[in-house]
Amino acid sequence: MQKYTRYLFFISLFLSLTSLYIIEKGGKEIYPFYSWKLFTNPSGSAKSEEQYRLYRIEGNDTIRVLYQATEMYDENNLALITGFYGKKIEKNENRESSIRKMKIFMKSYRPEYNDLYLYKESFNPWDLGQSNFKINKKLITKL
Q1: Does residue 120 register a pLDDT over 90?
Q2: Beta-sheet strands, E only, within 1-143
């Protein structure tokens, strides 16, 4: 596989630039790795990854709110905003103000969702795809 790495890099670069061009012309992204920050923010080198995620309650189930692009936000923006305010809320940096801003953000993104819960998820990226993959969740606050 190592002998193909150089070629895969250039193919990925070409497809990313093509996606950028198509998106700027008003089209949809054709290459999924374009927005995943594969080269600028890889998590495979770390043994622990932490993310802040939102969950909602539906009946007796806790359901993760998926990042879906809208006209105002793409998936990266949604993850970054959630992470930014999640970290502030967890560290009690302007906690009440950050909770209020997070609620305003969620009303602009998903106005139909009420009673959301902010969790901090941690996992080992090296275990992705394996049967022993486990995500540890810690409740930060109810929004």
Answers
A1: yes
A2: 49-58, 61-64, 116-123, 136-142
